[in-house]
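Notes from the pairing session

We agreed to fold both candidates in a single pass and log them together. This is the raw record for the first candidate, unedited. Please don't reformat it; downstream parsing expects exactly this layout.

Candidate A
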Amino acid sequence: MKKLVLIPTLIAVLGLAACETVPYKDRAALYQKQVSDKYVGQSVDNVVLDLGPPSSTYPLTDGREMLQFETKKDGYYPRTSGYVSVGTGWGGGWHRGNYGGIGIGIPFPMEYPDGYNSNEAKCVKRFIVNKQKLVESFAFEGKGCF
């Protein structure tokens, strides 16, 4: 009987562990480090060869230059009005001291019949390039970068 309780509990714990995500702040820091490690100290030619021509450039007063690359990602997803959970469970009564229960549910979205929502994610990448055409720094903004 204990095996019947242990199996659904194990499935529920594993299911919750699979839902864990890396916080945005940590993902942003990792992305900043990865891009900086790849380009800072390198020729600006490497940036242009990888990302294509910049969206815009700006000469700085000290002779350096700022290169800006802008991208947009469009995504569509069904509009939902909420979720309905369907599941099974096991439980007992007060007979012979057994009580309690465990259930597992699976959520299903209830879709609007009239279409989809648009989700646009923008990314702006900026590189500062010195007079020797080497990348000095990298910065980004937007949630569409990674």
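Candidate B (folded immediately after A)
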Amino acid sequence: MTPSKTATAAAVATSRCTENAPGSSAMNLTARHVTTMFSIRDGIRTHRDLVHQLHIDKTGMVRVIDDLEQLGFVSRTRSTQDRRSSLLSLTEEGIIGLQHAQQHTRGVADTLFGALSATELTALHDALARVLRESPKNQ
């Protein structure tokens, strides 16, 4: 198995599991939206920190935050310490939306990885964690 074939297989498997699944797509949320919401929930408060944490370019992150704000899921508040910066937080609607997206994600994960044993899941997790650690964006 080559890295290219592995990447293609992972993409096809994920696509098959997500294309008809109800959930985040019905709320007009992409994986970037949901990942951004998880990060904000977990304490990342600024645009700059999200860009660094998620390895997304600045312009792309602005679009994601704008989308989430338009959906009523995220609010921006001017920082009292740095007026050039806004602090991000999930709204009540954002918290509920994230809970729905999380249920969707669990369903997709169960469909995608349900056939694997605990040992296989651990091996896959460890391999993917290594790929992420050693990816060029982390260096």
